[in-house]
Automatic annotation (TrEMBL):
NCBIfam families: PEP_CTERM. It comes from Thalassotalea litorea. InterPro entries: Ice-binding_C. Coiled coil: none annotated. It holds the Pfam family PEP-CTERM. This is PEP-CTERM sorting domain-containing protein. It comes from the Bacteria. Residues 205-226 form the Ice-binding protein C-terminal domain. Keywords: Signal. The keyword ATP-binding does not apply.
Length: 230
């Protein structure tokens, strides 16, 4: 009788932890730079117009986006505008869940990302993407991955600017302004809106990690029971 109670409690606790993980985690800017308006940084003309953060957005240049806590998020990327001779592109995701778009495709895509606190969101901007496909580009004139974005060599290096968060209760929304590194800093070479939403990890099959946790618990329980019998 006591054993049954213990087993039930172990199972309930396991599912409590699974539930907690499923709902945790949105994003933060690592703000390696001071908050500035694009007009304070730009050396070329910023031609992005009003992107929902005002005509002269305030944010961080050379910074990166990280998860706040362990969890699964959905990342929706929407093309806003471009003002460049290059065909620039943005890619996001991992494994079999990779999406992307370029100046020609425009539109939007979304991917799921599961990570732990402080992980960088997996996305990259690529300058002058040739042969666009979901797996990448056949040629580029430089790229920058979130996590290694920096101010670099001013206008010669590719980099991006992240707007301050534009949020409501359930989403974290940022505008990302890519500069493709052709000797100016105008941050209008590709502009996308990133909406991050809490997401349930795929639930059809329990994750191996969760199963292992349950199995370990059961093994420990049986071992303890045997010790008591001795
Ligand atoms: Ca411009
Ligand atoms: Ca530029
Ligand atoms: Ca430009």
């Amino acid at each position: 009788m006591l054993n049954k109670v213990k087993i039930t409690t172990a199972f309930l606790l396991s599912f409590c932890f699974l539930g907690f993980n499923a709902h945790a985690g949105l994003v933060k800017i690592d703000d390696k730079s001071d908050e500035k308006k694009i007009s304070e940084i730009a050396t070329g003309s910023y031609d992005g117009g009003n992107v929902g953060t005002g005509a002269d957005p305030s944010g961080f240049w050379g910074s990166n986006l990280q998860l706040v806590a362990d969890g699964t998020v959905s990342m929706l990327f929407e093309f806003i505008s471009d003002h460049a001779a290059y065909n620039n592109a943005v890619f996001a995701g991992e494994g079999g869940d990779i999406g992307g778009l370029d100046n020609t495709i425009q539109g939007s895509f979304s991917v799921l990302f599961t990570g732990v606190a402080d992980d960088f969101l997996p996305f990259s901007f690529i300058a002058d993407c040739g042969g666009f496909s979901v797996s990448g580009c056949t040629s580029s004139k430089g790229s920058v991955q979130n996590g290694s974005n920096s101010q670099g060599d001013q206008g010669n290096d590719v980099s991006f600017f992240i707007s301050k968060k534009v949020s409501n209760n359930t989403n974290s929304i940022y505008y990302l302004f890519f500069n493709d590194g052709t000797n100016d800093l105008d941050f209008d070479d590709m502009i996308v809106r990133l909406t991050v939403t809490p997401a349930e990890p795929p639930q059809e099959v329990p994750e191996p990690g969760a199963l292992a946790l349950l199995a370990l618990g059961m093994i420990g329980f049986v071992a303890r029971k045997r010790l008591i019998k001795r």
